[in-house]
Amino acid sequence: MDNIFNALGDKSRRYLLDLLYERNGQSLTELSSRLDMSRQAVTKHLKILEVAGLVIPIWKGKEKLHYLNPVPLRLIYSRWISKFDEDRIEGLYELKNEIENSTQEVKMKGFAYQIVIASNSEKVWEAITKPEFTQKFWFGRSVISDWSIGSSVTVITPEGQEEVQGKVLEYDPYKRLSYTWKTSDVTAEEATTVVFELQEMGPMVKLTILHDMDAESAKFQQAAAGWTFILCGLKTFLETGAPMPAMPWKK
Fold first, then answer.
1. Across all residues in the chain, what is the average pLDDT?
2. Multiple choice CATH, 2-68, 3.40.50.970, 1.10.10.10, 3.90.1150.10, 3.40.50.150
């Protein structure tokens, strides 16, 4: 947590996060053009944000792009702030979001969320591939598949309804999993892709989720918030054995 608070303590780094909130997936050149400082100084600020887990660097060809990762901030809220006056703070948070969303167009090139879990890759892999575990942190939903390449993937709500359909694209146990993501209100051509990447770091695992959903999609904001809760819930479940207390999911 110290790294997060240190990263947020500088106004230039907070401004970098604001820039990535406005448009995710920016290069060093793009970000540097918005700040009155050298590329070297911007690079140092981005490195501090990366160490804190607030920014995720992803290479696309020879270009390094930077993505905002809100998961650590959600963890701070869920574990600390919500304990004191959850209803009142949640109301203010929703009001703030309503005002911002009505006056500001958010442009993001998909999601790139990341979290470090005090667990091993086998347990994390089991948690994201077995329905009895996904129910614990995925809003009660079951993710069902035999996980063979080309096999179907379905996300089933607690009421037994099929919410998401997909096909397994990659299955590399304990390292990488990807499948297509299609809800009932989109065509097959509009299906997106979700990627889970696991990296062991001693007694911990770094889990990255990539989702290429178009920012113009009507469900973009809901999906962005949903993945944040899912990652926080997964971390809490694996580290404590209990589901994370959270506000009910609002459709």
1. 82
2. 1.10.10.10
